[in-house]
Amino acid sequence: MRFLNLGGYAAHSNSIYRLTKNEVDELAAETGFAAQLVVEEHGKGIMVHQSRGNKAVQTDSHIGTERYLHCTAFGKAMLAYYPRERVREVLDRHGMSEQTSKTITSMEELSKECEEIRSRNVAFDDNEQIEGVRCVGVPILTNTEEVLGAISVSGSTRHMDDETFRKKVPELIQHTVRVIEINYSNI
Fold first, then answer.
1. What values do phi and psi take at 172, rounded to 5?
2. Nearest-CA neighbor of 67 among 32, 103, 101, 31?
C-alpha cells in the first residue's frame, strides 16, 4: 500500500496526466466505455489513467499496466508517428507476439496500417489484443508531431457496433485530443 503514494505522486507530477485526467473521465462518461491515457516507456504502453463508463468491460488493466504497442489501438496510434528507427527499436526489443488470431505479426502489415493511421489520425484494435474487445486510439501530438501519448476508448464487441467503433468513438476521441493538444501548447 505504501507504493500508492509514490504512484500518485508520479502521476500527478506528469503534465500530460494533469491535462488529460478530466478529459478522459468525461470521455468515459460520454461513451459509457473505458477510456485511457497511455504513454510509452521502454517500448511498451503504460496506462497512466483509466476511467470506466457504465458499459465498460472488466479487464485486467489498471494504472501501471504495460501493454505491447503493435496490437493495441493506443500503441499503433503512437507507433504511426514515431520515426522508422524508433519503431524498429521497439519491435526488435519486444517482438510482435500474437495475442489473438487477429493480431498483426508482420512488420510489412504494421507499416501499411501505420500509413492508414496517419492518414485518418485514428487507430483501431478489433479483437487484436483481447478477443471480444474493440479499442479506438488517437495519438496526442505536439505542434512538431512529437508523440506525448495516446487516448483510447475500449468496449466489448457486443456494445461497440461498427458505426460506434468506426465513426462515433473516433470523432469523440479526436475532439478530446484536440482540446488536450491546445491546452498543452499553452503551457
1. -65, -45
2. 103
Distance (Å, whole) CA 112 – CA 57: 29
Angle between helices 84-94 and 107-120 (to 10 degrees): 130
**Residue 78: all three cell numbers together:** 503512437
**Calpha distance 128→72 (Å, rounded):** 7
Task: Read off the pTM.
Answer: 0.91
CA 118 – CA 115 distance, rounded (Å): 5
Determine the Cα–Cα distance for residues 141 and 163; give it in Å rounded to an integer: 26
Residue 187 CA, distance from chain mean position:
23
State pLDDT tens for residues 112-154. 999 999 999 999 999 999 999 999 999 999 999 999 999 999 9
Contact criterion met (CB below 8 Å) for 147 and 82:
yes
CA distances 78 to 71, 91, 145, Å, are 12, 13, 10
